[in-house]
Specification:
The protein is mostly helical. A three-stranded antiparallel β-sheet has the order 1-2-3. β2 and β3 form a beta hairpin. α2 packs across α4, α3 crosses α4 and α5 crosses α7. It starts with a strand and ends with a helix.
Length: about 200
């Protein structure tokens, strides 16, 4: 492999391009340690050492650090590591590493999310939010079936009571406004209309 480019990102970090494509980010000392210079050949042995000893180790540490701050889905953690410009094999290795210790579990994340957010939200909203966070649809369905969601009609009644501007019968405009609000909260049309 030929080093076709070394691009400075910061004073100490450099993007390394091999055979014309971006390969990885290394620090200045690592460039010297592995003898990486533009236009020169990078030995396969050094390439594998960089992948396995430097980048994988760094990705594992970064994954642990990211999970220290807050629980994340696998998809969210993968995106954060991609944003850190780690190669795909280092990302996969880091995810397997944190998963092996139980630090990464989409099912646990979904259960906790539903438990914390179920007040004032319908199943459709919870389903959409979890899907946006990258949780697999089968896990979402399983978690929502397990969850003890209150009777949504009681929740709808409470939300309508809070959103009403006056007493007495609602005019069409207020009914449409509240209906739209409840739909955005993820309640089904049939439940809203029955209330």
């Amino acid at each position: 492999m030929i080093v076709t480019g070394i691009e400075e990102q910061t004073k100490t970090k450099f993007k390394v391009y091999l055979d014309g494509t971006f390969a990885f980010v290394l620090y200045k000392g690592e460039l010297k340690r592995f003898g990486i210079k533009q236009g020169e050949d990078l030995a396969q042995e050094n390439y594998e050492k960089i992948q396995n000893e430097v980048l994988l180790k760094r990705a594992k540490k970064r994954a642990m650090h990211l999970l220290e701050d807050m629980d994340r889905t696998e998809s969210a953690l993968r995106e954060k590591l991609k944003a850190g410009q780690y190669p795909e094999n280092a990302i996969s290795g880091a995810i397997e590493y944190v998963r092996s210790f139980g630090y990464l579990d989409d099912r646990r994340y979904a259960r906790h999310y539903v438990e914390c957010k179920k007040e004032g939200r319908g199943k459709a909203r919870l389903k959409m939010e979890l899907a946006q966070k990258g949780v697999d649809r089968s896990i979402i369905e399983e978690v929502l079936e397990e969850a003890e969601l209150d009777d949504c009609r009681d929740t709808i009644r409470e939300l309508v009571r809070k959103r009403r501007r006056g007493s007495g019968p609602m005019d069409d405009r207020e009914r449409q406004r509240i209906y739209g609000y409840l739909m955005r909260k993820g309640f089904s049309s049939s439940d809203i209309l029955s209330v």
